[in-house]
Structures are given as C-alpha cells and as structure tokens.
Specification:
The chain is of the alpha+beta class and about 260 residues long. The protein is about 20% helix and about 30% strand. It has six helices and twelve strands. The strands form two sheets. It has a seven-stranded mixed sheet with strand order 1-2-3-7-6-5-4, sandwiched between helices. Bound molecules: biotinyl-5-AMP (BT5).
C-alpha cells in the first residue's frame, strides 16, 4: 500500500482545465472539505482528493469505505452557469457517465444503477454523492463526490454491503493506476459537461441504465416501496417505471432492487 504520488497527481491533472487541487493523505470526507471550500469561493472544477477517508459518506448518512492505497475518493466542485442551473438534477448522471466512459476506455462494460451507482459485472464499483451549496433560493455550487474501488482491497466485506461490490482490478484482471483513471474521468466530465443541457443527454444516460425492462422494487425512507419495470429516465433524471397496470410511475428518490421472480 502506498499514498497517492502527489507529484504524479499534479503533473497529470495539469493536462486538464481544472480549478485548484487539494490533496490529503487522509481526510474525514472529501465532500465535507469541498462543501466548506465551495462556500469559500472555490474556482469552478476545483478538486479535493484523498488517499484515505475515515468518515466517507453515502446517502442518508450511510458509510462509504475508502481504505488507504486502494481507491479513488474525490469531490469535484461545480460552479454552474445560468444555462446549467435548471438542469442540475442531471449532475449525478454527468458524473456517472464520466466514470463509465473511463471504464469503457479500459474495455469494461459499465452500467449505471439509478440513481448514483456505477456497476461492473452487476456489482457496485462506484458510488456518487452530490450535495449543493445554496445562497438563498439559488444553487451556488454543486459538490460531486465520487468513490471508486480501484484495487481489490478497497471492497468492504459483504456483511457491510447493501448491494454486492467489486473493484476495477477484479473486473479487469489487472491493477490499473489510480491517477490515470482519475485523469480519464475528469477529461470525460469536461468533455460531456456541455451536453448536460441538451435533450439527447438523457438518451446517452439511459443507454447505460441497469435493469432496463426488468422488474424492480424501489425503496425509499418513509415511503411505500414502488414496484414496476424499469422503463427509462425523465428529463430531470428521475426513474420511470411501468407498473403492473401498464401505467408509468415516476420515482425521485430511493434504492433500486431487482425483484425476485415470483
Ligand atoms: C453512495 O451512497 O454510494 C455514495 C458514495 C459516495 C462516496 C464519495 S467518496 C468521495 C466523497 N466523499 C464522501 O464522503 N463521499 C463521496 P449510497 O448509495 O447511499 O451507498 C452507500 C452504501 O454503499 C453503504 O451503505 C454500503 O452498503 C455500500 N458501500 C460502502 N462502501 C463501499 C465501497 N467501497 N464499495 C461498494 N459499496 C460500498
């Protein structure tokens, strides 16, 4: 195990048009650091990256595990333009597509499990947590936290998981470099960003959607589970299901599970 090579990191990321970069050998959560920095005028596309997180967060106060030397954990600060602001609910899709593209370059076949996971071989390799910084009613910045299991040792034990997990190393059969993957994700993000405001962005996102036409159950806190076949995405990135009566139902939050055949 070794910390990320800061010299290699800064040299590689200098090839991209980013904001500023803050690197930590160890941190609580890169999203917490990025949220504080965003509130303190971080330039657009600034990045907080850590080798290890001791308090990594998922949605709903769940934990995200980032052991030292094994994973990517970073938060990207997006300072949206006025044109982008109406479409910010698509940011999670933009991040998932950027991660997926970096995996496709390596010959892998990622899928996006709505709303915020990237899967390889049907197992979770990446989780995304987007959080906003508001000024009044206006979104000032969006922090996009991305955690990726690069090496096998990044994957938590099965009894700590809600959904099966995998690493890129396991899916590829070899250990890829963390900094190169990070570079490719950020390069894809920058390239895809202008498409976020376009109508066909949804088609691109939908084309990688996991469980298409399969029967799933979506569970959310304090709400009854919704059951249906995955049909696609709404323009705002909500999930569109077709229920047993053939009606379309829109789901905004929750965790998708495949429904076992009766
Ligand atoms: C997520 O939440 O998947 C969002 C994870 C975001 C992590 C990034 S890392 C950089 C930034 N800084 C942070 O503090 N967070 C972001 P959710 O869909 O709620 O999934 C959380 C669940 O994933 C947990 O309850 C576990 O079951 C599982 N899990 C935890 N660590 C994992 C890992 N390394 N690989 C796969 N699954 C994991």
């Amino acid at each position: 195990m070794q910390f990320m090579d800061q010299h290699e990191l800064k040299k590689t990321l200098a090839r991209l048009t980013l904001g500023d970069i803050r690197y930590f050998d160890s941190i609580g959560s890169t999203n917490d650091e990025a949220l504080a920095w965003a509130a303190d005028d971080a330039p657009d596309l600034s990045i907080v990256i850590a080798d290890e997180q001791t308090m990594g967060r998922g949605r709903l106060d769940r934990k995200w595990s980032t052991p030292s030397g094994t994973a990517l954990a970073f938060s990207l600060i997006l300072s949206p333009t006025e044109e982008e602001k109406p479409h910010l609910s698509r940011t999670v899709g933009l991040a998932a597509l950027a991660v997926a593209t970096a995996l496709q370059i390596r010959g892998l076949h990622p899928q996006i499990k709505w709303p915020n996971d990237v899967l390889l071989l049907g197992r979770k390799v990446c989780g995304i947590l987007t959080e906003s910084v508001w000024s009044g009613d206006d979104v000032d910045c969006v922090v996009i936290g991305i955690g990726i299991n690069v090496l096998k040792d990044a994957v938590p034990p099965a009894d700590e998981l809600l959904f099966p997990a995998i690493s890129i190393e396991e899916a590829m059969g070899q250990a890829p470099g963390r900094v190169e993957i990070l570079h490719d994700i950020l390069a894809s993000f920058i390239e895809l960003r202008p498409r976020m405001v376009q109508d066909d962005f949804l088609n691109q996102w939908e084309s990688l959607l996991a469980f298409k036409d399969e029967s799933v159950q979506v569970e959310a806190k304090d709400a009854p589970a919704v059951v249906g076949q995955v049909s696609g995405l709404e323009p705002d990135g909500s999930l569109k299901l077709r229920n047993e009566h053939g009606e379309f139902v829109t789901v905004r939050f929750g965790d998708v599970r495949l429904r076992p055949l009766a």
